[in-house]
Write a structure and sequence with these properties.
This protein is an alpha/beta fold. It has 2 domains: about 230 residues, Rossmann fold; about 150 residues, Phosphofructokinase domain (Rossmann fold). Helix content is about 35%, strand content about 20%. The strands form 3 sheets. The protein has a 7-stranded mixed beta sheet with strand order 3-2-1-4-5-10-11, with helices on both faces. Strands 7-8-6-9 form a 4-stranded parallel beta sheet, sandwiched between helices. The protein has a two-stranded antiparallel ribbon with strand order 12-13. The longest helix is centred in the middle third of the chain and has 21 residues.
């Protein structure tokens, strides 16, 4: 006799994306289609779960329109967190508390949508389940605009962020071209990605028949040399009045110091020990101004890169939904301690599928841009990089507009309680 299916719980963790809620919709729809009684949502991830904060998602996704709005809603609908579970041997009581709540809710499957640190959570919880004899199955659903998860071709959220970056850099270039100043102008655009340059490299997407693209792109995979940088800027200014440079927030000097730290600003560090990276563009703009005396501007795309649901990629939104469904399917069919990955089958026409991989081989690892995808002088990306990223930004998902502004899924009072 087949075991009766009980309940599922799903959470969101880490930095949000424009596609993360599409994965949530995929988890929910697949769980319902596979016969689960209830699908609970953790409020602010595993941290909120430990405080007994969760909701029945059927009260929030009641119609097909709700699901479509959810796919088009940026940020984490359930609320996110950056909570680092202790090692099992350090604080067993934390795990006992979590598993008591899961038992109370009669949970069979635990799905966590997130990036590298979230996969660390899946790894630890699945390990504890084995130790404790729990039958709860733990599966990770990838999400990160940084695109730095191991073993997957790319991550949901990256395609939409790359599309926004390519679009925004193109518009910045156009704006800079409009005005001329006596000594020229240098615009530094700071792009997210921490220690991986996947997002910054996407600035090259702005290049086309109607745009020359940025004049230089600096990725964190290579040491950043201030002297070579200023020499490069001077050389470009000698040929054209307006210079646009894309620089990663995570660029470091050869001694390993973040450029953003060169101004000695106060540091914020999260629970996983990650420093908040911001200020590289400001520092470099000031440096150029001092060294050359020209007009400079520092632009931080900041959270706009991950929140721009009006500029999402259709490929990205569809894949995010499919990956959410695949994570639920994997857990339902007995997988645990795994993460769903995207496997690229071809570039042209673009085709991709999903499979599951051991989360222990993914958590706490960083996938960087290959050196051969960066030009020899380290100031741009190669055609191979463009071939890799371009399929991921294709198509559009039109916002559902109300009074000229995009409508998102919102329940009065729900967000107020977070």
């Amino acid at each position: 006799m087949q075991k009766k299916k009980r309940n599922v719980i799903v959470g969101q963790s880490g930095g949000p994306t424009a596609a993360i809620n599409s994965s949530l919709a995929g988890v929910y729809r697949t769980a319902i289609d596979r016969g689960y009684t209830k699908v609970y949502g953790m409020i602010h991830g595993v941290q909120g779960l430990m405080e007994g904060r969760y909701v029945d998602l059927s009260e929030h996704i009641q119609t097909g329109l709700d699901a479509e709005l959810l796919k088009r809603t940026p940020a984490a609908y359930l609320g996110s967190c950056r909570f680092k579970l202790p090692e099992i041997f350090e604080d067993k009581a934390v795990y006992e508390k979590i598993f008591e709540i899961l038992d109370k809710l009669a949970i069979d499957c635990f799905i966590y949508i997130g990036g590298n640190d979230s996969m660390d959570t899946i790894k630890k919880l699945s390990d504890y389940a084995i130790i404790s004899g729990s039958t709860v199955r733990f599966v990770g659903c990838p999400k990160t605009i940084d695109n730095d998860l191991a073993l997957t071709d790319h991550t949901p959220g990256y395609g939409s962020a790359a599309k926004y970056i390519g679009t925004s850099v193109k518009e910045i270039i156009r704006d800079g071209w409009s005005l001329e100043t006596e000594k020229g102008q240098v615009i530094i655009v700071e792009i997210m990605g921490r220690n991986a340059g996947w997002l910054t490299g996407a600035a090259a997407l702005s290049k086309g028949e109607d745009c020359d693209g940025p004049d230089a792109i600096y990725l964190p995979e290579l040491p950043f040399d201030l002297e070579k940088f200023i020499k490069k800027i001077k050389g470009i200014l000698a040929k054209k009045p307006n210079v646009v440079v894309a620089v990663s927030e995570g660029v470091k000097t050869k001694d390993g110091k973040y450029v953003s730290d060169l101004d000695d600003s106060p540091d914020y560090v999260d629970a996983f020990g990650h420093k908040q990276l911001t200020g590289a563009a400001r520092y470099l703009a000031s440096y150029v101004s001092r060294e050359i005396g020209c007009k400079t501007r520092a632009i931080e795309l900041s959270t706009l890169q991950r929140a721009a649901s009006h500029c999402t990629s259709r490929v990205d939104i569809l894949e995010a939904y499919e990956v959410g469904g695949a994570a639920m399917k994997a857990a339902d069919e007995g997988d645990t301690g795994k993460m769903v990955v995207i496997q690229r089958l071809s570039d042209d026409p673009y085709q991709a599928g999903t499979e599951v991989k051991d989360v222990h081989k993914i958590a706490n690892d960083e996938r960087l841009v290959p050196r051969e995808w960066i030009t020899k002088d380290g100031t741009f990306v190669t055609d191979e990089f463009i071939t890799y990223v371009r399929p991921l930004i294709q198509g559009d998902v039109a916002p559902i507009m109300v009074d000229g502004i995009p409508r998102h899924l919102y329940r009065p009072g729900f967000q107020d309680k977070l």
